[in-house]
Write a structure and sequence with these properties.
two-stranded antiparallel sheet; 169 residues
Amino acid sequence: MTEQEKREIVRQSFGYCCAYCGVHENEVGSELELDHFHPRAAGGSDDLENLVYCCPACNRIKSDFWPSDPTVRRLLHPQRDVIAEHFREDTDGRLIALTQTGAFYIERLRLNRPPLIALRQARAERISLRLEVNELRVAQAKLQEQLVARDEQINEIVAQLNRLLSNNG
């Protein structure tokens, strides 16, 4: 398998998003980077299972970190760990740790840096606006149906008036 094929497999497996912070390559305007989750400097391999798609900032911050004792202060693997068990996103866009491992992960990768918080807030706002637009479209469709029904009623009333006037005239 060529390096380009390997890269494309990793890109697709992470949905074109940074495995650590979640930024999409469209949001940064370019493809992201491949990171060795278990760094080669610490004995990691080039196997697909060890490659993670990530943004340059997360790759730089993570660097070649590898704990000497992975049971203490370890990084979560984006595809092997259930991330939602370790932290959640608050309504203000900040990540809130649910476990000590989650707290370490958030701190080590600096996942509450201001640009990421702003990105999460913008995403939440877009989702909220989409929901609101969808609700407004449904309301508009209902109003349109009501207008059609009213037009039919008006036309029937006009027809009745015309019949009454022609009978009286």
